[in-house]
Design goal:
The protein is an alpha/beta fold. The chain has helices spanning 8-11, 85-99, 123-127, 152-165, 188-194, 215-226, and strands at 12-13, 23-29, 36-43, 49-50, 56-57, 64-72, 105-106, 109-110, 117-118, 121-122, 131-133, 136-138, 144-145, 181-184, 200-201, 204-208. Strands 1-14-6-3-2-7 form a 6-stranded mixed beta sheet.
Amino acid sequence: MFDDVWSATHNIVEDFQIPHSWRIFRSFDWGSSKPFSVGWWAESDGSDVVMPDGKVRSTVRGDLFRIGEWYGWNGVPNTGVRMLATQISKGIVERELKSGYYGRIYPGPADNSIHDTENGVNIGQDMAKPVVINGKKYKGVGWTRSDKSPGSRKNGWEKMRVAIFNAQPPEGGGPREEPGLFVFRSCQQGFIRTVPTIPRDEKDLDDVNTDAEDHVCDEVRYVILSVGDRFISGTTRGHF
């Protein structure tokens, strides 16, 4: 789905400190027997950033950077860890505290199925319950709803292709003008391992193969669809 627009050289960036003026949020795709995927994102306001080597990097307003992830697998592809929702929310808070961004992180999109009540269990409500870490109580984890409108799935893949492609310099040279999608190099197990190589569905080339390890792809698609129409140009190559 993405191999013709993906560039490890341009889409992967070294981890850097997020400017205070940028918005940070999280996204989520639920899984138990299959992996779950939590992503942390920073949205550029167009300001420059300082890279680990001291160089200054320019950004485009609306650029999305995947700055962290927690992929719930046991090391075997497409196999989950069967954690409870309350265990995942506690793990999210622990990671946000460790990152130094706790308190700056807004709720982002998650699969709407977490808000359904099944056999008396509601994953979204469980994750919103307070968590206790080292004897201190913290707020639980909240989410916004994802776009599941008719046609949103294929539209999301198309916008995701545009976002990935827009991270690359223009073919004619000069600075980028359209916002793109970037991934911190530390996001190896989830995004970098599974997204660039996700196959298309052989029966429907406009969709991904849902038998493949598509959990990070779904979680990223929720994000792409949640930020409006910034990724709508027709500049990508391939089937779209």
